[in-house]
Amino acid sequence: MACMRRTRRQVLAATAGGATLGTAGCLDLVLGTGPAEFAATEPRVTDGALAAAGYEHVGTDAQVLEQQIEVEDRTRTVQVTNYLAQYRHPLAVPEQGTVEEAAVFTAFATPRVEVLGRTINPIASLDVAELAKRLLLLYAAVTIREQVGRLELEALGEVRQFTRYAGLVTVGGVELDSLLELSRLQRGADVLVLLGAYPEARSAEEENLATLVGGLEHGE
């Protein structure tokens, strides 16, 4: 007997994310009365990595989202908690002075949804422009121009693939030609999105990004 009437229905239609719904989760949805709750593990960059890269922690936000689903002729609420950790590196920009968010790094964690053995991960269908809009909240605007390369960085004990994009960001009324580095990966029951952005003219920031990613913790 199917736990959910529509197995392809996204639990988080308004955002990227999910939660793991195994057999126990299905029984809870059928028999329970309160919301079925699922939470990601909070990601963080170590203080040592932040100091070495010259970045500072802006803050980590817990995003609690709810979605109504149909389960065995009943309407139930699924509640998911995501975490968005944001970091910044102030840089001197010619003719503009110091721009506090000239370079930024974001780590986003969301629990996966698995229904009847099938993983539903809406984040996989979001393009880089939509991810930048949702995750690079320190920028007033982000425009993605084109993909310009790839790089490999070590994160959480493994070498991860990052895709590089050229773009234009607006911060503090200043427009900056920037590079954006994006990686999506699975870690335990979570999906992580790592996204860094920095001025194209500041190539040294690639090394700083490697330091941040190398100092990332998730569930340790």
SSE order in H/E notation? EHEEHEEEEEHEEEEHE
The main β sheet shows up as: 8 strands, mixed
At CATH level 3, the topology of the domain at 41-61 and 82-109 and 125-218 is Protein Transport Mog1p, Chain A
Percent helix: 10-25%
What is the count of β-strands?
13
Using the CA coordinates, give the radius of gyration: 19 Å
Structural class: alpha+beta
* CATH architectural name of the domain at 41-61 and 82-109 and 125-218: 3-Layer(aba) Sandwich
Description:
There is one protein chain. The chain has a domain at 41-61 and 82-109 and 125-218: 3-Layer(aba) Sandwich (Protein Transport Mog1p, Chain A), CATH 3.40.1000. Helix content is 15%, strand content 55%. It contains 4 helices and 13 strands. It has 220 residues and is an alpha+beta fold. The strands form 3 sheets. Strands 2, 4, 5, 6, 9, 10, 11 and 12 form an 8-stranded mixed sheet that branches. It has a 3-stranded mixed sheet with strand order 1-7-8. Strands 3-13 form a two-stranded antiparallel ribbon.
Topology:
Layout: E1 20-21, H1 23-31, E2 36-39, E3 43-45, H2 47-53, E4 56-71, E5 74-93, E6 97-111, E7 113-115, E8 118-120, H3 128-135, E9 141-155, E10 158-171, E11 174-187, E12 190-199, H4 205-214, E13 216-218
Helix pairs in contact: 2-4
